[in-house]
Design a protein that fits this description.
The protein is α+β, with helices and mostly antiparallel strands. It has one domain: YefM-like fold, CATH 3.40.1620.10. It is built from four helices and four strands. It has a four-stranded mixed β-sheet with strand order 1-2-3-4. A hairpin with a 2-residue loop joins strand 3 and strand 4.
Amino acid sequence: MYIIQYTADGGVDMTKVASVSYVRAHLPEMVASLRKKKRGRVIITRNGAASAVLLSPEELETLEILADKKLMLSLLRAEEDERAKRLVEHEDIFK
């Protein structure tokens, strides 16, 4: 089973839902698939209820960045600086 989510950029993100017994039998293939796609998650269920999530490293990194309020504020400020052309060339920094 899959959960289909639409992303802000108009893309589609599919989350696989699998039972613990299915994951136990297919873990190597599932890990290889997550590594190949660079994104993705598998919701692991026990008795029909979500119990755990298997994530790609890139997906985990994204979640960690989004959870870091200071980092997100810094990224937003950097985007504002770029739009306002408040940039410094790296050569000027290391003079």
